[in-house]
Design brief:
Layout (H helix, E strand, L loop, with lengths): L1 H9 L24 E5 L3 H12 L3 E6 L12 E4 L5 H10 L2 E4 L6 H8 L11 H4 L1 H10 L7 E4 L2 H11 L3 E5 L9 E4 L9 H5 L2 E5 L3 E11 L5 E3 L3 E6 L2 E7 L5 H18 L3 E10 L4 E7 L9 H4 E2 L2 H10 L7 E2 L2 E8 L3 H7 L7 E5 L10 E9 L2 H9 L9 H8 L14
Parallel strand pairs: 1-2, 1-4, 2-3
Antiparallel strand pairs: 5-8, 6-7, 6-8, 9-10, 9-11, 9-13, 11-12, 12-17, 13-14, 15-16, 17-19, 18-19
Helix pairs in contact: 2-11
EC number: 6.3.4.18
Function: Catalyzes the ATP-dependent conversion of 5-aminoimidazole ribonucleotide (AIR) and HCO(3)- to N5-carboxyaminoimidazole ribonucleotide (N5-CAIR).
Enzyme class: ligase
């Protein structure tokens, strides 16, 4: 117990030290006082705007729903459809530069924007919208990933499952709705996707026996400079992120390898903005990349209170041409998502939260089960103390034995399946 506590707490002193390439910075595309247009009015846009305002930028948002989370904190919101040329022209007319907060948008509209105003993230969104193309990019960049096949018929699917051997996970190629579009197949009696979904194309992937999931947030500016945030650990419930732990409780060699993979990938694809790379840590310490998210990511929300700069300021710097800043962690942190089902319990506990709890509310008017309403960052010096504090909160279910085991597992040849405290 004492040794485990020491190992967990010493992790908070580790920083990213991989020697990333730097390029000389050109003049910014826009300067403070000018206006950034944001395509999408969700919580990511909201947090981008809140950080961008500190740098002196103004913001206009396009979203089909009035009073959107981002629109609430912007200088102006245009209420319009994402596939409307008229709405896009309005956004461009009011903006000096345009960014998007999510990738599931009409390619034609994004390409139209690029012909009118600077669009640093680019219009090459095809790989971000399709898991099959994403896997091809990872393979071309020689990034390790689980064996997989893209199939378009039930016969092909069964053939791929036979080749890869069960268990497998089946994923839709497009659409990233949280908790949807994935089927874990341990036996052929398990529910399979409907034929009409299979015929649109699905990814058949070997389900690897990982002990921990981590993610790395990496930023790349318009001049090619790169900054990488140290890995964090993620805990999912019902295929939706529940908790992020920073720093990830992993061995130093695994951390260095994760950062090397992130640098190798972002340099290969010439990406501009912020990219989240989710990875599996296998029992022997091997890393396999699982998913890419070409935007600020839920697992990076902990940086808002634990790291300077946070992922949202770094995103603004990357797309505007301001110099990137080396991430410096101020403390240890744990992020826990607040969903619609947590709303009543959260309100009951709001006045009882400790001073180390930093609440970030998204301004959504309707709460639903599984809908992200906000998050809480818990920050301090001791990861062990924070874990115990968060686990005692009556807002959400406490950590299961399997989740505790994943946290304590250091993925160093063998995993000890025991809790962090007696």
């Amino acid at each position: 117990m004492h040794q485990e506590r020491q190992e967990l707490n010493c992790l908070s002193k580790q920083e990213s030290n991989f020697p990333y390439g730097q390029s000389s910075n050109p003049s910014p595309l826009v300067v403070p006082g000018q206006t950034i247009g944001v395509l999408g009015g969700g919580q990511l846009g909201r947090m981008i705007i809140l950080e961008g305002r500190k740098l002196g930028y103004r913001f206009v948002v396009l979203d089909p729903v009035s009073d959107s989370p981002a629109g609430q904190v912007a200088d102006e919101q245009i209420v319009g459809a994402y596939d409307s040329p008229v709405s896009m022209e309005q956004l461009c007319d009011k903006s000096d530069l345009v960014v998007y907060e999510f990738e599931d948008i009409d390619l034609d509209m994004v390409q139209m924007i690029e012909t009118i105003k600077p669009l640093p993230q680019g219009s090459n969104l095809y790989w971000t919208k399709n898991r099959g193309h994403q896997r091809k990019i990872l393979q071309d960049a020689q990034i390790p990933l689980a064996p997989c096949h893209v199939v378009t018929s039930k016969a092909q699917m069964l053939e791929a499952i036979e080749e890869l051997q069960l268990p497998c996970v089946l994923k839709t190629l497009t659409g990233r709705d949280y908790g949807k579009g994935q089927w874990v197949i341990r036996t052929l009696d398990d529910p399979l996707p409907p034929v009409e979904i299979i015929e649109k194309g699905i990814l058949v992937e070997k389900l690897v026996p990982y002990v921990k999931e981590i993610s790395v947030i990496v930023a790349r500016g318009i001049s090619g400079e790169v900054e990488i945030y140290p890995p964090v650990m993620n805990i999912h419930r019902n295929q939706i992120l529940h908790m992020t732990i920073s720093p990830a409780p992993i061995k130093e060699g695994i951390r260095e390898r994760a950062e090397q993979i992130a640098y190798q990938l972002v340099s290969q694809i010439q990406f501009v903005g912020v990219l989240a790379i989710q990875m599996f840590v296998l029992v022997d310490g091997t890393l396999l990349v699982n998913e890419l998210s070409p935007r600020p990511h839920n697992s990076g929300h902990i940086t808002m209170d634990s790291t300077n700069p946070c992922q949202f300021e770094q995103f603004v710097r990357a797309v505007t041409g301001l110099p990137l800043r080396k991430p410096v962690r101020k403390n240890t942190g744990i992020m826990v998502n607040l969903f619609g089902e947590h709303l009543d319990a959260f309100r009951d506990e709001l006045t009882k939260l400790p001073s180390c709890a930093k609440v970030h509310w998204y301004g959504k008017s309707v709460a639903r089960v599984g809908r992200k309403m906000g998050h809480i960052n818990f920050v301090g010096d001791s990861l062990q103390d924070l874990l115990e504090l968060v686990n005692e909160m009556p807002i959400w279910e406490p950590l299961s034995g399997q989740e505790w085991a994943a946290i304590s597992a250091m993925a160093n040849n063998q995993v000890e399946d025991k809790r962090l405290y007696a």
